[in-house]
Amino acid sequence: MSLRPELALLADLIPDGSRVLDLGCGSGELLSHLITETGCRGTGVEIDPDAVLAAIARGVPVVELDIDTQLDDFADDSYDVVVLSRTIQTIRKPREVLQQMARIGDTLIVSVPNFGQLGNRLRLMRGRMPMSRDLPHAWYDTPNLRFTTLVDLEGLFTAVGLKTHRRIVLNPSGRPARTGERLANLVGAAAVYVLRA
Amino acid sequence: MGAKALEPGSVGLVDTQSVRLFTPESPLQLRSGQALGPIEVAYETYGTLSPDKDNAVFICHALTGDAHAAGFHPGAKRPGWWDNLIGPGKPLDTDRFFVVCANLLGGCQGTTGPSSINPETGKPYGLSFPLLTVGDLVEVHRALMHHLGVERLLAALGGSLGGMQVLDWALHYPEELANAIVVAASSRLTAQNIAFSAVARRAIMGDPRFDDGGYTESSDHPDTGLAIARMMAHITYLSEDALTEKFGRAPQPGRGAPGFGIDFAVESYLDHQGQVFTERSDALSYLYLSRVMDYFDPFADADALQRVSAHPLRWLVMSFDTDWRFGTDHSRRIVRRLELGGQPVTFREISSPWGHDSFLLEVPSYHATLRTYLDRALLEVRS
Predict the structure, then answer these.
(1) Known catalytic residue: B309?
(2) What CATH number is given to the structural domain containing B349?
(3) DSSP β-bridge partners for residue A21
(4) How far off is chain A from B10, nearest CA to CA, in Å?
(5) In this predicted complex, what is the ipTM?
(6) What is the extent of the structural domain holding B145?
(7) What end-to-end distance do the CA atoms of chain B give, in Å?
């Protein structure tokens, strides 16, 4: 099975045999790959009923819970890795969710689209809300509730006591960008962070 | 009945079978330490066991169920109690799955229970029948599976008390199940749950015809108490919205001046439920099996999760959002415990207006989940 480039990148960051909690797992594509290919065990959390059913069809354990309010169901230090892939911008309480992730897991992997990317800024300067391959939704039809740039997001990581071990800036095709770290917030369409408390 | 047998989706005509699984010489050792034998078990099967014996699904029934889960008995107008789930092309597709359902130990529908004859005395056991645990019910299920030549189930599936049996089975013998499907169940009754059971038992035992359990030898049974117990329990099986939608405050047709009879349609409905129940149920079975639920607390056993960790199996836990008997809090407690044990658990809260009874009904997202899960389970066991 071939994964989308960004999911393949996430999979590479997760050590073989890990116990993985994937928050907002969608149809379970990442977990299915980890379970069958790299000896991981894991659970997905998803609230969209169709996605839950798709994950069950893939054989991925999935719990239908609200990430914003129901992560208490997972015990302290019960997972090696907790993944929040392209989901932080859709939840109501990003700060609390990051704190819960740090409580539940050892390593956190967070990926996020960058609203601060140059193309988005230019679109905003022309008076239109950002839309791009990474932000494909019209303003009235988007699941995204939180609009953050990489710099803003990193400020929240620091505020909740998370240290960034790796940051991988992605170009619009979901592959690592070849730009300098200094320009990440301008050039990166998205980024993947590996964090620890 | 020929037409019914040909009805698409029906397993057609079925018979309840019976087998003696324990004898006085080789009795069942109950978890209490007491021995019980003989034990006759009434059961039904649907579909065909595959040559690899990898497609068996065991149905555990709830407090008042029986072995007749699907299809039609000769001459019957109504099918078995879970016929909407079991049959060709249904989620439990009998073209692919081999389905087994047995009446519980302590029951009154063909399996040995407190109203059965005690061979030592030649009289019904009555209240001398030993108290049971969920684990005892499971031991009899296991003996039946051995009798049928099945060493490992593809899945055990049950709702309410049925789900509790599945949970106990999987926690004690995880190597015997590939999947445990626990619906609208509980791993530990609340004070409110026990309180409702207490009132039901008091209604039965307070009926003078109960006669300290001696009624089985007379034709006069404690039907008043049993009907009251059922009427009250039935209220807890439905949501307030479900009762409102079914009856509202509709008057009973033909009611006269207000009085203390059956003035409202809902009263007639409950009265009917109570009456029907006394025809197919037994007061002693109700006492024994409701008590089984009160004491169930499988996670109190500190070794339970360790046993499971050594023999991985998969779990599907489901609840219904309007169930106030064993609601979502009960299921999430089960999920939390299994999570703590590192178990691969899938959980869904199904939206349904019908309360606890939803597990018996054809709720689309509920059946879709079971269908998807069971299809995958069969695929995995054969990959």
Answers:
(1) no
(2) 3.40.50.1820
(3) A43, A82
(4) 25
(5) 0.93
(6) 2-192+299-381
(7) 40
